[in-house]
């Protein structure tokens, strides 16, 4: 029994705050109406309407949760090929008013500024991609235009970024991403897609670093002086993994603090480089081999090595790597790949690497860069927490880059590598030129070149 109140004391109601007396009953009534409505629908009258009704409540809630996460964590994509489209379609000419207007809002492809804003993006690694030589008869040391075209890709990417200073800022260190994000801009980083693009040269890796590039994919779809490509194995070739010179390339990348990207390399090259690298590595755009056995994807045992390496796999949206029926690929396939990878690695080693603008078909539900929030919402619906989707969206990538920078700082007294690929041919020299050292006299390869 409740104790009896003295006559002169206020009734309990008078002691309750206003919100309990008036707001709470109204809220209770509203909840009762909602519960009654969903019960009514649940009664079998209209299941479809019920699903839509409940999904709307759910997605409105998850939409707000995603917006909250992305207001604190920059969403960073590991691989976008817009610079490639600028080259093959516009020959790198971007200053035309019509072009700039389209890049702001209205391209037919996957990436423009208004779509990026709708996608709540906070950072993008722009891929400065130049393809492997068209013919397999072109050897590793044969002259190509790959380095020239890569320099031009870097140039057009920087000019694109500089054309929209209110939107983009170039970042060459991890801390820059959060700084730029706080100012409401999208951090822009540069990644190079293959060792052939740096002429298989440690010196050129350093020069590309100085130009602002911050990752290099070890190989694209051709073997090079550093290692074996996945495409070689897919075509029936041997998987010889990383080369001896590939080890020197790993050491130089670690020394510079440049991220090693293992998308596109063979599985043995992945294993070899994961065993060698003292810095965390990245897969800028790869998915799970267990979910879909395409050689571009990463098998579970290598995902375990990735955890030991503290690296990141940025899950790609390329339909051919998601499912055996690419034309039917959807956002749900990407969710499944992410959840499988997470079941092996936990949430500290995943990210997003769409390959937008580098693919001819897209998964349903992930048509362009505006769709990242939909993907994060689906992950919440599948039981992920806000902290977990924040890691996937950007926290992991920033952590990986910071750790690579820290390895570089520890190596600051190490001299730049001077190694060259064993198959490198050197310029023939003019007969009459003087020698630097006594012991080299007579040892230069004599040729017919003129004096400098
Ligand atoms: Zn690629």
UniProtKB/TrEMBL annotation:
Pfam families recorded: Peptidase_M19 (PF01244)
Catalytic EC class: hydrolase
Cofactor(s) named in the record: Zn(2+)
Keywords associated with the record: Dipeptidase, Hydrolase, Membrane, Metal-binding, Metalloprotease, Protease, Transmembrane, Transmembrane helix, Zinc
GO MF terms held by the record: metal ion binding; metallodipeptidase activity
GO biological process: proteolysis
InterPro entries tied to this protein: Metal_Hydrolase, Pept_M19
Entries under Gene3D superfamilies matching the protein: Metal-dependent hydrolases (3.20.20.140)
EC number(s) given by UniProt: 3.4.13.19
TM annotation in the entry: 20-39
Reactions performed catalytically: an L-aminoacyl-L-amino acid + H2O = 2 an L-alpha-amino acid
Family: Belongs to the metallo-dependent hydrolases superfamily. Peptidase M19 family.
Protein name: Dipeptidase
The organism of origin for this protein: Coleophoma crateriformis
């Amino acid at each position: 029994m409740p104790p009896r109140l003295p006559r002169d004391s206020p009734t309990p109601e008078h002691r309750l705050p206003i919100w309990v007396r008036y707001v709470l009953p109204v809220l209770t009534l509203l909840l009762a109406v909602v519960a009654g409505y969903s019960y009514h629908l649940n009664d079998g009258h209209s299941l479809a309407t019920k699903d839509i009704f409940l999904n709307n409540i759910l997605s409105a809630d998850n939409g707000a949760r995603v917006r909250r996460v992305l207001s604190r964590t920059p969403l960073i994509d590991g691989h976008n090929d817009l610079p490639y489209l600028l080259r093959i379609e516009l020959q790198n000419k971007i200053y035309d008013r019509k072009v700039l207007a389209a890049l702001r809002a209205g391209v037919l492809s996957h990436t423009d500024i208004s779509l990026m804003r709708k996608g709540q993006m906070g950072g993008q690694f722009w891929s400065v991609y130049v393809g492997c030589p068209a013919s397999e008869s072109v050897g590793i040391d044969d002259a190509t235009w790959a380095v020239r075209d890569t320099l031009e890709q870097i140039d057009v990417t920087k000019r694109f970024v500089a054309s929209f200073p209110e939107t983009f800022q170039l970042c060459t260190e991890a801390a820059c991403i959060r700084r730029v994000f706080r100012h409401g801009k999208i951090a822009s980083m540069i990644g190079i897609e293959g060792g052939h693009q740096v002429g298989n040269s440690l010196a050129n890796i350093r020069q590309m670093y100085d130009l602002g590039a911050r990752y290099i994919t070890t190989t694209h779809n051709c073997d090079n002086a550093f290692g074996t490509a996945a495409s070689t194995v897919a075509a029936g070739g041997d998987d010889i993994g990383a080369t001896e010179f590939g080890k020197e390339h790993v050491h130089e990348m670690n020394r510079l603090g440049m991220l090693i990207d293992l998308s596109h390399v063979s599985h043995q090259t992945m294993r070899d480089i994961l065993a060698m690298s003292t810095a965390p590595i990245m897969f800028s755009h790869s998915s799970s081999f267990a979910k879909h056995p395409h050689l571009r994807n990463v098998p579970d045992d290598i995902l375990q090595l990735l955890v030991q390496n503290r690296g990141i796999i940025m899950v790609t949206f390329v339909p051919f790597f998601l499912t055996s029926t690419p034309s039917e690929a959807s956002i749900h396939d990407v969710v499944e790949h992410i959840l499988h990878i997470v079941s092996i690695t936990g949430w500290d080693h995943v990210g997003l690497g769409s390959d937008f603008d580098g693919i001819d078909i897209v998964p349903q539900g992930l048509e362009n860069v505006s769709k990242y929030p939909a993907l994060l919402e689906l992950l919440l619906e599948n039981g992920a927490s806000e902290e977990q989707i924040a890691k996937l969206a950007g926290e992991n990538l920033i952590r990986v880059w910071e750790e690579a920078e820290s390895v570089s700082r520890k190596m600051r007294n190490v001299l730049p590598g001077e190694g060259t690929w064993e198959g490198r041919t050197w310029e023939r020299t003019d007969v009459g030129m003087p020698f630097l050292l006594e012991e080299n006299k007579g040892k230069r390869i004599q040729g017919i070149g003129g004096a400098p």
